[in-house]
Every structure is written in C-alpha cells, then in structure tokens.
C-alpha cells in the first residue's frame, strides 16, 4: 500500500458525495479522495493507464446507466485493483443485493447512516483495519 | 317266412306298439296329446298333466281350445293351427296358454296331422313344451335392454354416441343433440370428424384418438369442438373400444361432456391469478423502491440538520445546508405526490369517454407555457385523432412525455407529435397479451440527449433513472406512470433512442371500444 491512502466514492448523488468526502477529510485530511458520478465514469477513470489504483472503493448501489452491482463486476475485471478493498454503500440493504455483492468480492455492505458520526465511525474502523 | 315266424313278428310289433305308447304316456317334459279330426282330445300323457294340470279323466273328449286365451279366439287361432296342420302337415307356434287353474305358461306347440292309408287326415298329434322360464328370462333381458337404451337416449348432460370401426356415427342421444346441436336424423351415418375444428382435423386428431382407443382400449381428450351452428364448446371426451367375443374391435362408444363453463371459469381464474401475480410483484417492487427512494431525502434531512447544529455559528455554512435541507424536503413531497398518483393509477379502472387528443395537447402546452418559453422549445404536431380513453390520464401521459423531452435536452428542445393507424402485426416488440386489432400510434419525437439502446425497456421501470441527479432532476416515476396509463388503456408504449441525438416514444392505443 502506498503511503498516501487513496479512496474513490462512486455515487450519482452530489449531496451524498459531499457528505462522504466531508467525513473522510474529517477523519484524515491526508487521504486522497476522488468521486465518480456513476459506474461508467468510474470504470473509465479506473481503467485509464495513468490512474493509480485506490486503496478503497465505495460504490453506491442505485445508480443510472450502470448500477453498483454491475460496476462491482466490472471493477473485478481490472487487474490492478486486485488489492483494492471494495465496499458497497447504499440507502437500503436488500438481502439479495448484499449477498450478491459479497459473492462478487465486496468486503462489506454499508447502509448510508443518518448521523454523520456513525459514518465517521464506520470509516475510521475501515481505514484502521487491514484486509480481513 | 313261416306262419310261426309271422306270428312272432306280429307279437313283437304289438309289444313294440305298447312300449311306444307307454313311453309317450310317461314323458314328463312334453305334453303329447292326440286330437281327433275336429280337435277333441283323445289321449293324454304325464307331461300334459304336469304342464296343463288336468287329469286324463277330466280332459279326454274336451276340445283342445280349452288351453287358449280369450284373445286367441278373436282371430280363431286354434282352428287356424289345425287348418294349417291339415293343409301342410304341421303347424308350429309359440304363445301364452292357460292351465287348469287359470295361470299362464309359454307354450311351444307343434301340431302334426295324422293320416290314414288314403292320406286322409284322421287326427292330430300335438306336442307342447313349457318354455315359460326361457320366455321370462328373454323378456327380462329385453326389458332391461330397452330400459338401458332409453336411459342412454334420455341422458341430457352427456353426449353418448356409438361409432363404427371407421368413425361413422351409428347412434345419437338427447345429450348429444343438446351439446352438439344436430338431430339424430341429421347426424347418423356421418363421420364423427365433423365435431372437430379444422386445425384438429388437419392434425389428424380424430383418427389419432380412434387408433389410441383401438390400441389401448380407451382414449381421453379435452379440447375445443364445433357445434352445428359453428360455435365452439370445450369437450371432455372418452372414446372406448367395443369388442366382440373374439376380441376384435367392432366399434366405439364416445362419451362427451360439455365443460365450456368450467373451462371459461378456469381460464378466468388463471387470468385473475396472473393479474394478481403481476400486481403482487409490482407491489413488492413498489414497496422496495418506495422505501428506498423515500428514505434518501429523509436521511439527508437528518444529516443536514446534524451538520447545521454542529456548525450553528457559521452562518454561511448553515444557510447552505438549510437550502439543501429545503430541497430534500421538496423532493420528498414530490416523490410522495408522484407515488400517490402512480398507486391511484394501479387501483382504479378509468372512466372512458371519447377524448380529443388535440385538446389534450393544447392543455399540456398551456401548462408548460413558461418552461417552453424559457427553453425556447418548439412543439409541432399534425392533427391528432380522437380516441376512447380517460381524459385526465391521457393528459398525464402527454404531460410526462413532453416534460421529459423538455427536461432531457441540451439545446432548444424541438418536439414533434404525429399519429397514424397501424395493425397489431405491425407493432414490433409488442407484448404477447396485446389483443389483435387496429391501433392508433402516437409518436413523440425529440432532439434531446436520448439514451443508449440497452435502456429501451429499463426506462419504463419505477425509479429507474438513466441520468445522474447532478445533471437532471426527476423522481424516476414519470415513464413508469406513462407505461401504467397506456396499459390501463389496453395499449402499449415503447421507445427508441440514440445517445445525444434524441428519443422517440411510441404510444399505441386500441381504436376499438375499450369497454
């Protein structure tokens, strides 16, 4: 893992992007956090040659064009992301979707919390732990 | 031959004659009596006594007509029998006779004329057998058979018919007439194929059933059959092979029940069930997406209020998030309103009237007047037809499609609306359950941002957005609502698009009565 932690949040909701970034910066201002508006955009970014693989990717489930599960499937095909820890990040956790994403290699399924403190706590835990 | 020998022979003949007489006298199973030329009883045996109950003393010298019934005298039966025996040598007859006690027996009678050397009739021998038991058994069988035939003939609920080995109708009952409409005169002698639809005949179904019955003993089938008047009924059919004693098939019985009512009820039930299943899955989807999409603005409202509380002193920050909070609340109420609209559409059958689509379009244009001006949009249309439908729902349909075109545009929106009449067969991708007939196709074409081909069907799903929220607002309900409205009108909606070049929405509404 590189010294500077890199993180990508894929979410079509600008508010949710903002809240997420706010929490990450609040936890550790040194984390390099990028955003993508949807799966197609993210795959284009991650697949480009010059792009360094992030350490963490958070994927919203309900997105236009390419949904989170499809996006996860595509990410799994990109070799340089083999060590990247991937988390699903959605308003609701439908059992079917949770199982599907875990089968596809997502480490966890995070329900978007109501309180920012909750999200911060979850992210702190993720950033401090190593791969399970 | 010597004299002694002759005498011996005569004695032998006399002894033989005696023996013969004794034999006749002792016979019990046959009444054997001798009549004189005029029919008076000369001789009586044990069989006669047993059958007719008179003793020899009682009966000798009586006329043989004593055994006959009163009705036999009307046509002079005893005399006619004697006459026939006299003329032809023998007369046979079977009939009811009377015993001494008045009871009856079924007699089989043979009267034989007795001649002298000159061939003159000198009397008659009358042999009678009591066949009452056989007669009664025969009668019972005949009555039972008659009753059985009557029963089949009068059965109303089943068509019970007899077919020859090659399927020719030989017998017809009341049920067959009631179910199939033919009288027995019309149908007997014709092939049973006549009850089958032309498709089934082409497939060889009637012969297939006969050969199955021939091989397996029985063939069972359910299917549409044709009545005399051409109407169809759902028949449940059993064809059974009939065999003779040596096991050869000599024909078939065919029992048909008219299960049309049950079939219709079953089909209706299946239809209801399918509809319920669709509604159920729609409801499930509805509940899931509703909870998801409603959760979103709610969660944001709480998060934003948290942020504001934490940064209460930073007026600029607080104002920014108060605005966002406000937007989320607006979005929430928009969602609730659209969802309500959608669920109302799912629930109610609309009132149907004649709707002038030109008027509908005029109203929608008026609603969007400001937006059209602001976006410098043009809406061009050919004269539109009148259709059978619900004015309010069709208004909503037009409003959603036009608002979509206005919303998803980069330059000045240019919308054209035209219509034409098409056949069901011309509609590509039409769902299977779309009924045959003529449809009015209304096309909405725009020069907007379009969409990629693979989203052609997806865009009509509830809460399916193709465009990120940062660029285009929307609840994800609009096109789902359009689909619902068109389906409520027994129509079909589809779309085609090309990214960056625009989209066309095709709305097909049936021209026939909607009822």
UniProtKB/TrEMBL annotation, chain A:
GO terms for biological process: phosphorelay signal transduction system. The modification 4-aspartylphosphate is found at residue 60. It comes from the Bacteria. Keywords: Phosphoprotein. The keyword Ion transport does not apply. Pfam families: Response_reg (PF00072). InterPro entries: Bact_response_regulator (IPR050595), CheY-like_superfamily (IPR011006), Sig_transdc_resp-reg_receiver (IPR001789). Residues 6-127 form the Response regulatory domain. PANTHER family: RESPONSE REGULATORY DOMAIN-CONTAINING PROTEIN (PTHR44591:SF3), STRESS RESPONSE REGULATOR PROTEIN 1 (PTHR44591). This is Chemotaxis protein CheY. The lineage of its organism: Bacteria, Pseudomonadati, Bacteroidota, Chitinophagia, Chitinophagales.
From TrEMBL, chain B:
Gene3D superfamilies: 1.10.287.130, Histidine kinase-like ATPase, C-terminal domain, PAS domain. It holds the Pfam family PAS_9. Residues 289-513 form the Histidine kinase domain. Residues 16-72, 144-202 form the PAS domain. One of its GO terms (biological process) is regulation of DNA-templated transcription. The keyword Transferase applies. PANTHER family: PAC DOMAIN-CONTAINING PROTEIN, PHYTOCHROME-LIKE PROTEIN CPH1. This is histidine kinase.
